[in-house]
């Protein structure tokens, strides 16, 4: 049997999540005695196979077509479905990214299979896989079983360790007929600046209602600059119009799991905690001694963020020289 | 313009989760229309107000789900259909999508609208599965939408930015926060909703069998996440606290 990983690339560059998913695929393939096969699809992407080889796949199947230059659901769904039908794997893994979230359910419905989305852990017990997926944005954690022959899962970014490994890494061509897409990509708009994406960031600095005004985010930006961090927001700050909703962390925003999450002027409502509770280390800065965030944080500072954060930025600059 | 809007009834996002016998307890939990589905309902109503036609809200659920559908009728949807069947009680996302797609395929529509995901299982599966089962183009996680001459121009959120997609209708679209500001039902709206049609159909009515919607995934057990160990609130002057924090982050937590 085999495990198939869909290698996500956009604009000819592999995404970090791809290496995380292949690393987990390798671990599961080793445990289950399966081979690991990677599907690399795009336009003129053969050169990316070298990067994938480092993570120990047995085979990399490459599809090149100008019809795959942009990610479109229907063209990519056709390619992945055809590959899965050819390989008949026990497990298909994708990232729980914008592309993976869009693609996996379409392919699952076409195959009539079972899909567990947004897994933070997959286990093999010698006979079957079990899938761990947080529900209610992390207020609970559920274990799923899948009873279809091909089982499909998407993996949460920033959870699975990237690990280089040995593998045969045969590169083969795969040339399915590629379905035309009924959607056309007219424009791609990149977020301004070079900050990491929230779901991929190692460090996130977030601001909330306690900032008092939208200009308060300038300070959060400066802190983020000092740490190479992404900038997040509580729902309150988004609803007040201080920050774009793309920055919202929580149950009706993004679920994030950075190494370090610094919450400034955020009280720590249950919906917010649900979105960032799996961060490895949480720092809370709040002037209200009763704020929930100070109970949850690994390290809390009770104080005025307009005094604490500038001092913190200075100290970080001093330490980092 | 006829729009079918799919909704799910979910726990209130303020709800505290209680686990009973390995499953999430529904006892005493306030139920709401999934917040992302509200954006879809709002957008559907706005499109109808502009272009004419009707908005039909569709859901899979039990008796209580009628309340969620009535809420959407009070917002301004025209009628509702609830698919209710014992065989759907354990259904997974694919089973629900199969049932809704069968229902929708028997209707006349220009657009199917969903929320981008439900806040309970956070799976984000149903919109794409519906699109597949209805053999339609899809555009998920939309923050802006324009429709003219049977064509949709949709702005979709992607990692680190957004993209603009074009497609001919009919299509399946899913709403993200930011697409619009959701209205609250007005008092006349609530009164009118009581008289609007809410039809309940079974799998047999849709000529589907239990096997057609059989779950491929099963939630075996749920548990609360491990509690975070109690943290430390630092003390002293600001400079002292900040110095201590930086050294803790560097040497103890090793995160900077």
Summary?
The complex is a heterodimer of chains A (321) and B (256). Chain A has helices spanning 16-32, 49-53, 73-87, 98-111, 216-227, 235-239, 270-276, 292-296, 305-320, and strands spanning 2-7, 9-10, 13-14, 35-42, 59-64, 91-95, 114-119, 121-124, 129-135, 140-146, 151-155, 170-173, 183-190, 203-207, 230-233, 260-264, 281-286, 299-302. By secondary structure, chain A is an alpha/beta fold.
Overall description:
The complex is a heterodimer of chains A (321) and B (256). Chain A is an alpha/beta fold. Chain A has two domains: 2-173, Rossmann fold; 198-320, TPP-binding domain (Rossmann fold, 3-Layer(aba) Sandwich). Helices cover 30% and strands 29% of the residues of chain A. Chain A has nine helices and 18 strands. Chain A has helices at 16-32, 49-53, 73-87, 98-111, 216-227, 235-239, 270-276, 292-296, 305-320; strands spanning 2-7, 9-10, 13-14, 35-42, 59-64, 91-95, 114-119, 121-124, 129-135, 140-146, 151-155, 170-173, 183-190, 203-207, 230-233, 260-264, 281-286, 299-302. In chain A, strand 9 and strand 10 (140-146) form a beta hairpin. In chain A, helix 3 packs across helix 4 (98-111). The longest helix of chain A has 17 residues, at 16-32. Chain A is elongated, with a radius of gyration of 21 Å. The model of chain A has no long low-confidence stretch (mean pLDDT 96). By secondary structure, chain B is of the alpha/beta class. Chain B is 29% helix and 30% strand. Chain B has helices at residues 35-51, 65-75, 93-105, 126-134, 187-195, 238-252; strands at residues 3-6, 9-11, 19-20, 23-24, 31-33, 55-60, 79-83, 111-115, 138-148, 151-158, 161-168, 171-175, 198-201, 217-223, 232-234. Chain B has a nine-stranded mixed β-sheet with strand order 11-10-9-12-8-1-6-7-13, sandwiched between helices. A two-stranded antiparallel sheet of chain B has the order 2-5. Chains A and B meet through helix 3, helix 4, strand 7, strand 9 and strand 10 of A and helix 3, helix 4, strand 9, strand 10 and strand 11 of B.
